[in-house]
Structure formats: structure tokens, C-alpha cells
Amino acid sequence: MRDLSLSTAIKLSLFAIVAASISVFAPAYALQQVAIAIAYAIAILGLNLLMGYAGQICLAQGTLFGVGAYVTAILNATYGVSPLATLPVAAAVSAAVGLLIGLPALRLQGLQLAIVTFGIAAAFPQLLLKLGSLTGGVSGLPVDAPETPGFMTDVPELWLYLIALACAGIGALLVSRVLFGDAGRALRAQRDNPQIAQALGVNLTRTRLWAFATSSALAGLGGGVFAIVSGFISPESFLAILSINIVIGSIVGGVTSMAGAFVGGLFMVFVPSWASDINLSLGNLIYGLALILIMMVARNGITGFIEKWISMIFRRAAG
Amino acid sequence: MSLFFQLVTSGLATGAIYAALALALVLIFRATNVVNFGQGEMATFSAYCTWQLMQWGVPLWLAVLASLVGAFAIGIVTFRLIIRPMMDAPVEATVVITLGILVLFQAACMWIWGAEQLSFPSLFPGGGFGIGEVRVLASAVGTLAILLAIALAMGFIFRFTKLGLSMRAAAFDRTRSVLVGVDVERMLMLGWGFASVIGALAAILIAPRLFLSPTMMTPILFYALAAATLGGWDSPLGAIVGGLAVGVTESLGASYLPFVGADMRIAVPIALTLIILLVKPVGLFGSYKVTKL
Amino acid sequence: MTLLDIRDLSVFYGKTQALFDCSFSVGEGEFVALLGSNGAGKTTLLRAVSGLLPFKGSVFYAGKALDKISAQTRLALGVAHIPQGRGTFTEFTVEENLSLGATIVASRSQVREDKERWYETFPRLRERRNQLAGNLSGGEQQMLAVARALMSRPKLLMCDEPSLGLAPSITQEILAIFKSLNKENGMTLLVVEQNVDITLQYADRAFVIEAGQIVASGTASDLIGNEDIKKSYLGVAG
Ligand SMILES: Nc1ncnc2c1ncn2[C@@H]1O[C@H](COP(=O)(O)OP(=O)(O)OP(=O)(O)O)[C@@H](O)[C@H]1O
Ligand SMILES: [Mg+2]
């Protein structure tokens, strides 16, 4: 137990150092990119709960992310609510939508859920267009920049970055409360063996719905942050491929790792953009190849791969 | 009433394309237990190859034939390089790998041919004929005829040839097949090859209507997934029936259900999939072996 | 002449070792039984010989080292393996099962001829030729498994626990068929069994395997009266 908290402490301080050095050294534009990566990471944190612990593949996380983004944008653009105040609402609405998807999903497993949610992801942009009077249709909706505190007005991007980071912190806290509490034990038990879990008195229905709601709330929160950081959203940003990319980010980072969520978010934003720096039209091709190669070399994601190497090196050093 | 028959006819023609892609998915699932989310994009790539050959002056039918041969090779190479090393990976990993195939082929099309929509010639003459008040397009008849031909050819191969028997055996149980001397790996490879050819045909058939673009098949893939789920993931016959059923319901739903309409027609297969999964998860023709899809 | 020669055979499942330096040989035209209790390593040994598992040590078949030869080629050389639990293709018809048994046979007339021949031997299979194998009784499935293996015209037929789940009389029937294949066709047999007394009535020689090692061997008539071996290795109450 002491080992665990020690390594958590090490990880946290490492994380803090990385986060701080990004804020100091990264140029403004990159800061905004990192903030977007963090928005995705928040959604991935949720998806990890679902995939890594509840064993369910959801290909509609991008849709729930989009729901959150649109709640923020609509509340802000149409009703003039201040952007930051919309975030809890975004999370709550997404959680509710997630529950709606989650109810039938209680009886679906693995690939079945993947197929249904893939359909939902494919339908979402159409729905946004159909509800044009609410969503602004193809032309999308603008989102106000949150008021930047006086001493930071030179670099509003830094403020956006800090907001994203704070939301990610809240998300991580939420996930760790779920994981290390009773719900987490129940989740792991039901993933490893539903029958035994049931026999042990785990309420499967409640646990799975709980996982879905939490995961969706995080997607909504991430989406809200995305809308604020981007300053503008349209259906283009929430095509089916977004959900696919979020799953990819999640797996690439490692489904059972919180740090992995951030690796995954960064992967989603930066690998395609680096790849297109190498060659503009080749960008996605390199992204796809990188993805497949990573999966073949490191099935447990990048984080799992690194952890394996570190523990191997430690073992060598020890004996 | 004639509207109804009109909608059914056009639904059947679209359904034939869903059926073809679903058939490809089912072939691969039976053989390797993988749901290939990249099937549509692999097919799009082949349709682009046809287009390219025609740009170079190759006549349509020859271009199609050559692309189908190419599609066969693409299926085999994808299996050897990407799927075979991952065959005993957990299901999340195989889902991501096939999503990777989707991204890869979409990107390849984008890189080589760009993102703009290209017009693609139909394999069939324009126009059509009337039966009573119902107008039947030649392309609809042609598409259905091709589906029928695929179905008969597959049925023949699987029922009556040694190759088909070996392929079915390899899909049924790998160890037992090895013991009777079936070259299991070769059979799985061929399965991927055939599936890729059938998928490519689907893309070539639908390209004239949707225009050729790198993302052309992404929504079609969902219709095919719905069709395979409806029919049962281990049943080729189910894939065909499921595809036609999805096509017809979609066409009827888009016209008769005002809240669905033409722009939300994708809601129809979503609802169908959900219903079948909740009511009869193995699908109409599936066996209970695959409840845990 | 030795047909199958196994020397210092070791097999691992990941890090756990299931066979430890087993050595024995089977002469051409012999009927040999491999006896051992549950978990002794009998199935593992057959799987190594037929090519389903990699092994350390050496296995020679008709003078050829098998380690680098694929399962398919081993079958073509004449090594057939009827797995434990019969390994029938339950969702295929009886006829299709026989056709699958002849996967490596190129000549269609040979396939037709052999089917005819084994339908003669197993008339029950002929009656059910168009039924799914999964709907046959246990005994019929075992006969199908034997007939299917014979379709490849093996020289060495290895069968893993034919008696599993069958009534003694049916076990006898199957062992009698093995015996006649052995006597009349000169086929070499290696039969894995736990059912010691019945098996030793038919086999020429037997090896006893325990915890992954060959612990005893002898002619059937020697072993049949040897209560010590039966008691200590085969779990037969004295
Ligand atoms: N796939 C496997 N993975 C790991 N260990 C295995 C595997 N198969 C068998 N073993 C182990 O190897 C040993 C030998 O098993 P094997 O199946 O060869 O025994 P057997 O003599 O055929 O037993 P039985 O009479 O019950 O069929 C056992 O300890 C078993 O637990
Ligand atoms: Mg055994």
C-alpha cells in the first residue's frame, strides 16, 4: 500500500513537472493544441473506465463529446451563459444521453456494443444538421472566450490551458474515486467474471450504468472544454472518425492507465500534425501506419509498453 | 400502393450493396473472428483503382476485373501483414487494428487521389422499364443480378468444392482442421481475399450513385454491420437476407416515417440493430455459437 | 523395423514442462498402447508427434526427423492423429467429415473408393451419411473419427482415448477394428488409453507414462498380470 501511494506520488509530481514545463516553454499556439489534447484526454479518461474496467467498447464517445460541446456552445451563444458555468451542465447532459445509450447497452457486450455505438456516431452529424435551428447547422456556433484574469491577458492561451488542466484534474479525481472505491471493485469483478460478480452480490446493472454515466459525463466535460478552447464548433468536428480516434487514443495510451489517457490525447492531436509536417498529404497515412505498428508492438498501449520496460530495467538492476 | 412497390424495388437495389459488404464482413468474421471495420475503406481503394485504370484508357469491364484481382491481393496482404500477427489478441485490440485499417486506406485514397468527389460510371445502361406503375432501373436489376451471382458462386464453392469445404473447416475449428491436413493459414488468407473482392464489388456498384470519395463507404459500412447483425454473424445467407431487409426498411422508413425523413435514414438500421440484438442476439440465421459476438 | 522412434522428448507449455525426456519406439506393424492416468502427458505426447506442439529432443518417423516438418506434411507422410474427444466436425455431415479426412488426397477416385470401403466397415455411418456429425451418438462419432483418419491412408494411426465416454462393448468393437487393421493391413497403431485391461487384450506392447515420464514398458501379456504397475501408476484398485 505504501508502495502504491509512493509511486502515485512520483507519478503526480512527474505529471506536475511536465504540465508546468509545457506552460512555461511551449509557444502560445502549441499551448492551445495541448489544451485541445487535454480535452480529448478527459473523454479518454471516461472511455478507459468503460473499456479498461467495464470491458465495453463504445464507439460513440465522440458523439457524447459533441453533445457536451454543443451544450456549452448553445448555452453560451444562445442564452449568454458564461462559458465556464456551462461545463457542469455539459457533463450532466452528456451523462443523461450516455445513460440513454447505456440502458440497451446493458444487454450488449463487446462487439455488439461497438456496432450499435458506431451507428450512433455515424448518425450524430446528420442529427446536428437536422436540428439546425438549435445547432446552427453547417455554419456552426461561436463560443466566447472565458474572461482572462488581468495578469494573463498577454497569453490567453495559457489561461485556456490551465482551464483544461483543471478540468482534467477534476476528471482524474472522479475516475480515481470510482476506481478505488466500491464501484471500482465491482467494475473489475464484473469485467473479469460477470457470473461470479453477480454471485458475490455485485449489482451488475447499477455498476454498468454507473460506468456509462461517468464515462459520458467525462466525454461531455471534455467536449465543453473543447468548445471553449476552440472558440467555434460545427458538425465537421464531430464526425464518426472522432469517436474512432478517441478509441484509438485510448488504446494507444493504454486502457487501464490514467496517464495513458493523456498520452492518448496528445497522440490524437500531435501525431497527425507531426505526420503532416513531414508531408502534408501523407499525414494520415503515417498516422494509420503508426497506429497499426504501435498496436502490433505494444498491445497494452504505449504506457503499458513503457511500464514493462521500466520494470524490466529495474529487475535487471536489482538482480 | 405503387409508391410502396417503388420504394421496395429501390430498397432492394441498395440492399443488395449492403448485402455484398455484409457478406464480406461475415466471411471474415467466420474465418478469423474479426469484425473488419476497415472493410469499406479497403473496398473504396479498389473502386479508385478501377477509376484510375479507366483514366488510363482501360475499358470499364476490364478495369473492374483488374481491380477485383487487385482487391484479392489487398485482402491477402492485409491478412498476412496485419491480421495474422494479431489473431489471438483481445477483442479491443482487434477492433483498434481494423479501425487502423480504416484510417490507413482512407488516408491512402486521400493521398493518391485527393478528397474531392469523382464521378464514376455505372456498369449498367441508364434508364429502365416499367412494370405497371412501378419504374425499375436497369442498374437496380443489374445490381441484384450481381448479388445473386455472388451468392450462387459462393454457395457452390462452399457446398460442392474441396476448397470450399476446407475453408469452412478452417473457419469452424483450426486445430481439427490442421489434424486432417487443411492448410488453415492458407484458407484464412483466401477468406480475406474473397471478402475483399466482394467488398470491392459493393464499392464499384455504389460509386456511381454516391460519387467516389475516400469516405464514401464509411456510412455504408454501418449498414453492412447492421445487415450482418440482423442475419447472424456466422451465416452468409443471413448477410444477404439481412442486407436486403435493411435496404428495404431504410427505403420505406425514410418515406413513411416523417420524423426520420431522408436526412435521418441511418436511424432505421440503428433501430433494427438494437431490436435484433435485444430480441434475438444471434440474428435471424446465426447459430448460438456466436452469441458472444 | 522401427517406424516411430522417440528420443529424449520434452514438451513445454509456456514455462511448465509436461514431458520429461521420454524415449520409446514403435516398430512397423506393431500395435502399441500408451497407458497413463489423468494428466500424465499422453495427449501432449501425441500432439507433439502429429505436429500440434513444438518439442525438444527428437522424433524420427520412418527415419525422418519430424521437428521441422509441418503437421500437414506429417499427415502426408502417413502419421494420422485422432484427437481426444474425437475432433469431428460437428456442424458438417458425415460424408463431409470423410471428405475432410481426405484433404491431402489428390485422386478423386481414391477418395470415392475409400469412402465406399469404410462405409462397408461402418454401415451405421452409411445410413447417416447426410446427417450432421454432431447428431451422432458417441460411439458413432468415434467410428466416424476413425474412418475419417483412415481416409488419408495412414501408416501410423494414433488414437487418443477411444474409450472416452463409451460403453465397454463399443470400446471393444473399436479396438477390434484397430486390431484387424493391424493384422490385415499391417497398419501400425499407437493407442492412448486409461482403460488398461481392455486395451491390453488387443495391444502387442505397452508403455506406461506418469507425470511426463515413461516409467514402465513391456509386452501386453507381461503387463496384464503385473498388479504392481497397475496399482502404482494406473490407479487400478488391486
Ligand atoms: N494447453 C495446456 N497448457 C498448459 N498446460 C497443459 C495444457 N495441456 C495440458 N497441460 C498440462 O500438461 C500435463 C499433461 O496433460 P495431458 O493432456 O497431456 O494429459 P493426459 O495424459 O492426456 O491426461 P487425460 O487422461 O486427462 O487426457 C497436465 O499437467 C496438464 O495440466
Ligand atoms: Mg489426454
Automatic annotation (TrEMBL), chain A:
**InterPro entries xrefs:** ABC_transp_permease, LivM-like
Q: Where are the transmembrane segments?
A: 30-50, 57-79, 85-106, 113-138, 158-180, 209-233, 239-270, 282-302
Main subcellular localization, coarse class?
membrane
Supply one GO CC term from the record.
Answer: plasma membrane
Instruction: State the superkingdom.
Output: Bacteria
Molecular function terms in GO for this entry? branched-chain amino acid transmembrane transporter activity
Q: Which Pfam families match?
A: BPD_transp_2 (PF02653)
Keyword terms of this UniProt record: Cell membrane, Membrane, Transmembrane, Transmembrane helix
Reply yes or no: does the keyword Lyase apply. no
- First and last residue of the signal peptide: none
Keyword Hydrolase assigned: no
Q: From the Swiss-Prot or TrEMBL record, state where the protein is found.
A: Cell membrane
Q: What is this entry's stated membrane topology?
A: Multi-pass membrane protein
What's the protein here called?
Branched-chain amino acid transport system permease protein
- Annotated organism of origin: Rhizobium giardinii
TrEMBL record, chain B:
Q: Which GO molecular function entries does the Swiss-Prot or TrEMBL record give?
A: transmembrane transporter activity
Q: Which Pfam families does the protein's record reference?
A: BPD_transp_2
Q: Where is this protein chiefly located? A: membrane
Please state where this protein is localized: Cell membrane
Q: Which UniProt keywords apply?
A: Amino-acid transport, Cell membrane, Membrane, Transmembrane, Transmembrane helix, Transport
Q: Which domain of life is it from?
A: Bacteria
Question: How does this protein lie in the membrane?
Answer: Multi-pass membrane protein
Q: Name one GO cellular component term.
A: plasma membrane
Gene Ontology biological process terms, A to Z:
amino acid transport
Q: Transmembrane stretches, by residue range?
A: 7-29, 60-83, 95-114, 134-158, 187-206, 212-230, 237-260, 266-288
Q: Does the keyword Transmembrane helix apply?
A: yes
Which family is it part of?
Belongs to the binding-protein-dependent transport system permease family. LivHM subfamily.
Q: What is this protein called?
A: Branched-chain amino acid transport system permease protein
State the organism of origin.
Answer: Rhizobium giardinii
From TrEMBL, chain C:
Q: Name one Pfam family in it.
A: ABC_tran
Alphabetized, the UniProt keywords read: Amino-acid transport, ATP-binding, Nucleotide-binding, Transport
Please give the biological process terms from Gene Ontology that the record holds: L-amino acid transport
Task: List the coiled-coil residues.
Answer: none
- Outline the extent of the ABC transporter domain: 4-236
Lineage, top-rank taxon, reads Bacteria
GO molecular function, one example? branched-chain amino acid transmembrane transporter activity
Concerning InterPro entries, the annotation shows:
AAA+_ATPase (IPR003593), ABC_transporter-like_ATP-bd (IPR003439), ABC_transporter-like_CS (IPR017871), BCAA_Transport_ATP-bd_LivF (IPR052156), P-loop_NTPase (IPR027417)
SMART domains linked? AAA
Q: Is Nucleotide-binding one of the keywords UniProt gives this record?
A: yes
- Tell me which PROSITE patterns the record gives: ABC_TRANSPORTER_1 (PS00211), ABC_TRANSPORTER_2 (PS50893)
What family does this belong to? Belongs to the ABC transporter superfamily.
* Protein name per the record: Branched-chain amino acid transport system ATP-binding protein
Q: Which species is this record about?
A: Rhizobium giardinii
